[in-house]
Amino acid sequence: MTSTTTPPQSATTAVALSGVTKVYGRGTNAVLALDGVSLDVRPGEFVCLVGASGCGKSTLLNLVAGLDRAQGGTITVADDAHPGLMFQEPALFPWLTVEANVEVPLKLRGLPRAERREKVAELLSTVHLSDFGRKRPHELSGGMRQRVALARTLALDTPVLLMDEPFGALDAMTRDILHDELERIWTERQLTVLFVTHNVREAARLADRIILLSSRPGRIIWSTEVTVPRPRRIDSPEIAAIASEVTDRLRTEVGRHGK
Ligand SMILES: Nc1ncnc2c1ncn2[C@@H]1O[C@H](COP(=O)(O)OP(=O)(O)OP(=O)(O)O)[C@@H](O)[C@H]1O
């Protein structure tokens, strides 16, 4: 079996992984990064992936994004949508203004100029950066740069957002604000989100479901539905209790591998 992006299996699945296996390298240098990962993500669901360093979280996102191919299994994205991918580093073009950065995907999509301008204004308003369109990335804070990266990803007009530690480099206060912002945008746009994080509190704060991957090779070893009503607070006892349970599971898994 090879990795494919075939039509959706069911209207109740936005992203489906079935028996996904990823090996890097060959022969004696081969590294089995993912081993038979199966996961169905519901449309509009917010799924957080946690696991020890090197367990294959980024690999999984890259495969769903279509940046790499799996050796085994299938990956299905509903309606053949091309997911948007965001990283810890905003990866903006430093020589372009904020507006021009957000405009890049719109140009690539071939939107006419007037429509692009309208869309850029709407997206900057969505991430609360309407007054900063003419600035360049170096004039912005880290949190603002991630807002630009988010606006640029949203410009792809995709229903599926893949986020690889997007707030990992930010201070706690900025992260807290961006959690609220992301939650609002996720709800307003009915996005499906796959979010990788090392921060278990962040996972409990944001997720509908938390998935725990084993240490390499990555396999899904545990998951939990987070039913705490929204809006949530990262410092609430309910979130702390879930984070503590995830930490315990993670610690057991890391301990099992002697890392
Ligand atoms: N291009 C590559 N070539 C060889 N090995 C790779 C490559 N990319 C990743 N790996 C290995 O595959 C495994 C999974 O890597 P991946 O980056 O997906 O893990 P991760 O869970 O995202 O890690 P982290 O939490 O540290 O970011 C790791 O052992 C890594 O060293």
Compact overview of the structure:
Residues 15-240 form the ABC transporter domain. The chain is of the alpha/beta class and 259 residues long.
Ligand kinds: adenosine-5'-triphosphate
Structural class: alpha/beta
Shape: globular
Weakly predicted, low-confidence segments: 1-8
> Fraction of residues in helices?
25-40%
What is the strand and helix layout of this fold?
Blueprint: E1 15-24, E2 31-41, E3 46-51, H1 57-65, E4 72-77, E5 84-86, H2 98-108, H3 113-126, H4 142-154, E6 160-164, H5 172-189, E7 192-196, H6 200-206, E8 209-213, E9 220-225, H7 237-256
Parallel strand pairs: 3-7, 3-8, 5-6, 6-7
Antiparallel strand pairs: 1-2, 1-4, 8-9
Helix pairs in contact: 2-3, 2-4, 3-4, 6-7
The structure holds adenosine-5'-triphosphate.
Describe the 3D structure.
With 259 residues, this protein is an alpha/beta fold. The chain has a domain at 92-157. The chain is 36% helix and 22% strand. The protein contains 7 helices and 9 strands; from the N terminus they run βββαββαααβαβαββα. The chain has helices at residues 57-65, 98-108, 113-126, 142-154, 172-189, 200-206, 237-256, and strands spanning 15-24, 31-41, 46-51, 72-77, 84-86, 160-164, 192-196, 209-213, 220-225. The strands form 2 sheets. A 6-stranded mixed sheet has the order 5-6-7-3-8-9, with helices on both faces. The two termini are 33 Å apart. The model is unreliable at 1-8 (pLDDT under 50). Adenosine-5'-triphosphate is lined by residues 24-25, 31, 33, 51, 53-59, 216.
